[in-house]
TrEMBL record:
<feature type="region of interest" description="Disordered">
    <location>
        <begin position="163"/>
        <end position="206"/>
    </location>
</feature>
<dbReference type="Pfam" id="PF13843">
    <property type="entry name" value="DDE_Tnp_1_7"/>
</dbReference>
<dbReference type="InterPro" id="IPR029526">
    <property type="entry name" value="PGBD"/>
</dbReference>
<protein>
    <recommendedName>
        <fullName>PiggyBac transposable element-derived protein domain-containing protein</fullName>
    </recommendedName>
</protein>
<feature type="domain" description="PiggyBac transposable element-derived protein">
    <location>
        <begin position="2"/>
        <end position="168"/>
    </location>
</feature>
């Protein structure tokens, strides 16, 4: 985790005026450029962002300013993309851990685009990190019910290392929630919440927790619950009256 150095509050009208020398990179790209105005140029700072912001024009502009970048990217934002599409990657014949890398140079700026298959396919773009060197990470195989090692490119490791505490849904981009590794795992389904008790039970001012706790029925309908509460209150009142009567001096 880290500190928020600079931020903008979204209101739908953030595409403000640009300073001289700043290109128009679209609404999302302009946000990144504005937030980086105070970052020193030409000393190889590295910026990480998700696919909501990543685009080739943004990555190229920042590289010319001496700022390197790593980010997930949507494949349709990469012109003349030669990487296999998601449908091809997700075929059963393509093993988990497979990756494809394409490298290109634009006006002296080297760019690497890597697509990696985990539970799903994620594509990343960078001006300093590529697929090599690869390492091995552990993944659970539901079909075989065992944990196996799969190949993990260097660019994925770099992204997870620096975005782990800030972005939790890194591949999809919005909303941001865990590391790339966590986001690729399927979300667990949560059961629906228990319905609240009827209004007359909530507003009668009586303590119902003991009655609910001692109820032997697994499922109690609201009418049965009301009857149990009334019976419990009646017994409590009768017991109190008998006790008070027995303490009188004239007995």
């Amino acid at each position: 985790m880290g500190y928020a150095h600079k931020f903008e509050i979204y209101s739908g009208q953030e595409n403000l005026e640009k300073v001289p020398g700043e290109p128009d990179l679209g609404a999302t790209g302009n946000v990144v450029v504005r937030l980086l105005r105070g970052v020193p140029r030409m000393i190889n700072h590295i910026i990480y962002f998700d696919n909501f912001y990543t685009s080739l024009p943004l990555v190229y502009f920042l590289a010319k300013q001496g700022i390197h970048t790593v980010g997930t990217v949507q494949q349709n934002r990469i012109p003349n993309n030669k990487i296999p599409d998601r449908k091809t990657f997700m075929k059963k014949s393509v093993p988990r851990g497979s990756y494809e890398e394409r490298v290109s140079t634009l006006d002296g700026v080297d760019m690497s685009c890597v697509a990696w298959k985990d539970n799903k396919v994620v594509t990343l773009l960078s001006t300093y990190a590529g697929a090599l060197p690869v390492t091995e990470v552990s993944r659970y195989d539901k079909a075989k019910k065992e944990t196996n090692g799969i190949t993990c490119p260097f660019i994925v490791q770099e992204y997870n290392k620096h975005m782990g505490g800030t972005s939790k849904e890194t591949k999809r981009g919005r909303p941001s929630t865990s590391t790339l590794e966590d986001e690729l795992q399927s979300k667990r389904k949560k059961a629906s919440p228990a319905p609240p008790p009827p209004k007359d039970i909530r507003t009668d001012g009586a303590e119902h927790w003991p009655t609910v706790g001692v109820c032997s029925l697994e499922r109690t309908f609201p009418l049965d619950f009301v009857r149990a509460v009334i019976l419990g209150l009646t017994k409590a009142v009768l017991t109190q009256r008998i006790y008070d009567y027995s303490k009188r001096d004239d007995c």
